[in-house]
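In the laboratory, one determines a bound structure by crystallizing the protein with its ligand and collecting diffraction data. In a computational setting the workflow is compressed into a single prediction: the sequence and the ligand go in, and a structural description comes out. We illustrate the idea with magnesium ion.
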Amino acid sequence: MRACIFFDIDNTLFPTAEFAELARRNAIRAMIETGLDASEKEIYAELKKLIREKGSNYSNHFDILLRRMGVARPARYVAAAVAAYHNTKSSIQPYPEVPQTLMELKKRGYRLYVATNGDAVKQWDKLIRMGIHLLFEDVFVSGEMGEEKGASFFRRVLAHVKANPSECIMVGDRMDSDIIPAKKLGIYTVRIMQGPYSKQKGKADAKIRKFSELLGVARRL
Ligand SMILES: [Mg+2]
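The predicted complex, in structure-token form:
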């Protein structure tokens, strides 16, 4: 019997790619609404360029964006964009089947954990806003662990939860960070085929398209 299940957050529990897109759109519209003289398309193209250069987690995006667009007094637009971004954040939801599936797994006696890359506060913020944080025994985030998800990360997580790899399942969307390192240690891996990384090549022990299919996979083990 597999007793522990580890979950990735982004594009596994939470539709990260869709959220980011929506939050950016809302921020751009808020800047236009506040009086910024540019089209949505134009601002979006500039923002995309900036994200490619600086990464998607960069927090001064709007400031730099406006300066690049030659806006002399950008404060009001930055404020509008940031407020819209945060308002979008306040309404985040997990994928619709996630809460019920997690509760059912708990009822069946599984110990649930989060194992994710990212900044620990930001990842906790998502779990709390989604209202699912209390379902997990513990949450392991690379930012707090001091290393990205790899074989060594998973070895330390197993030591923390006092479980053998043969007792554990890892659920995630990415081959490189979720599946390959966990599989290497002998953890049973389940890949969820959603989000931008679903095109990555590679094979997990099991593949699911909907989160609730996990119930059937877990039952077979
Ligand atoms: Mg992910």
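The chain has a mean pLDDT of 95. Keep in mind that any predicted model is a hypothesis to be tested, not a measurement.
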